[in-house]
Every structure is written in structure tokens, then in C-alpha cells.
Amino acid sequence: MIPRDHPRYYSLMTRERLARCAKKGIVSFGGLAAHGRGEAFDYLLGEKTTKSAFLAQQTAAALLMAAHHPVISVNGNSAALAAHEIAALQRSSGALVEVNLFHRTKKRIGSIERLLQDAGVDVFSGEAERLLPLSHDRAWCRRNGIFSSDVVLVPLEDGDRCEALVSMGKKVIAIDLNPLSRTARAATLTIVDELTRAVPNITRACNELSQKDRDRLTVSFDNNYLLTDAIREMTARLSHALD
């Protein structure tokens, strides 16, 4: 048992949840390594949502609400960490939710879809096809889901699929704690924040933003600024730690 007064309680509980889901086949072992890498960057952010990340989350809400066919693409880690949060975002944004995996098996797809459904997600499922210009299993998706989307939210993404989706003319919203990653740099909009902080903020913005604010955000955002500011925040914290 991890005591609630442990200074790393939330982090340790998150790791335990991922470990349990890995044993069930929901999270891949590669996903465990990816989480650790992201957690290291979160330390550099002070484990908080920065002003620029909050702006990106509001912009993400505006893009989702303005979309004709928004889709939330879910992998094992995002399902394990934020299934209930994804359900709330789906209700607020009206987006489809589709599972898309690098380590893809029918059994694993089924396990993740059941986890999401138990949390209240209306999962878009059915027969998938190899539709994306990729040589690995991230290429498999549903024709009326990710393939037909105009805006895709891709938490915890592979860089090459992000690049492929952008090349297909889609607006890609990435949630990525590493502002230097290929995903972060290729995405239309990058939220440099931890998943379980970011998704509820996007949901609140979907519910609270006025139409005027949505219109303003969708035309005024600058992803280079968002990435640069995240790097500045990390650099400032490192400099302060060395003082």
C-alpha cells in the first residue's frame, strides 16, 4: 500500500495503474518506458499546467468544437491513465473515440475498448483497414473514424503517425510532455502537459468557451510559440535549481 501522505503518491499510483494494465495486456512494455520518459519532462515543468499549456488546451477545445468530424485517438497508455476523462471529453466535444495501436492485436484492441466502455466511452469500433501511409500497425484504422476525420486529438502519440495524419490534411492536436519530440514538432497544435491534467482542462473549455473565444483561438494560435515557451519554462526551472 502506498500511503496518501507520500510526497510522490500520485506518481506512484499512476505507475501502479500502468503496471497492472501491462499485466492485463492493455499497456505495452514499450508504453511503460514511454511513460517514464514523459514523467521526466513533467519534473522539468514542475508537474503543473503552464500558462502556455492552458492556452493550448483552450485552443484544442476550440478546434474540436469547430471540427466537422473530430476523433480522439486512444492507445493503451491513454486508456489506462484517463479513460473517465476521455469519456467526459467525448460528451463535451461530440468527438468519436477510436483505439489505434502500434502493438496491435485483436485481443489487445478488445481489452482497451472494454476498459473505455466501462468508463462510459462510446467507442467507435468495427472492421479496420490499412488506410494510413505507414508500414506498421498504426496504419490500421476505421474508414469512417480516424481516416475521415478533420481534427484528431492524439494523446501520447507516435511521431510518424502524427506526420502522416498532418500530410493527409488533418489538424492534429498532440498531448506530449516532450516539446522536442517529432510528434510535438509535427502536430498542428501541441499541448505540453501531463495527460490527466490536460484532458479535463480541454473538457472544461469545451463547456465554457464562448463562440467568440472559439473563433479567436482557432485563427490566432502559434504552435512554435507554445513549444518555445515550454522549453523556456523547463530551462528556467533548471537554471533556478542550479542557483
State the main characteristics.
243 residues; alpha/beta; Rossmann fold; five-stranded parallel sheet; two-stranded antiparallel sheet; 10 helices; 7 strands; 11% strand; globular
How would you explain this protein's 3D organization?
This protein is an alpha/beta fold. It has one domain (51-242): Rossmann fold, CATH 3.40.50.12640. It has ten helices and seven strands. The protein has helices at residues 9-23, 29-45, 51-66, 76-93, 106-118, 159-167, 182-186, 195-208, 211-220, 223-242; strands at 70-74, 96-99, 129-130, 140-141, 151-155, 171-175, 189-191. The strands form two sheets. The protein has a five-stranded parallel beta sheet, sandwiched between helices. A two-stranded antiparallel ribbon has the order 3-4. The longest helix is centred in the C-terminal third of the chain and has 20 residues, at 223-242. It is globular, with a radius of gyration of 17 Å. The N and C termini lie far apart (37 Å). The relative contact order is 0.17. The mean pLDDT is 91.
CATH architectural type? 3-Layer(aba) Sandwich
Helical residues, percent = 55-70%
Please describe the biggest sheet, giving its number of strands, its sense, and whether it closes into a barrel.
5 strands, parallel
Determine the mean pLDDT.
91
Q: How would you classify the quaternary structure?
A: single chain
Radius of gyration: 17 Å
Beta-strand content estimate: 5-15%
Strand order, sheet with most strands: 2-1-5-6-7
Total of helices: 10
Task: Write the element-wise H/E pattern from the N-terminal end onward.
Answer: HHHEHEHEEEHEHEHHH
Measured between the Cα atoms of the first and last residue, the distance is 37 Å
CATH superfamily: Phosphopantoate/pantothenate synthetase
Tertiary shape: globular
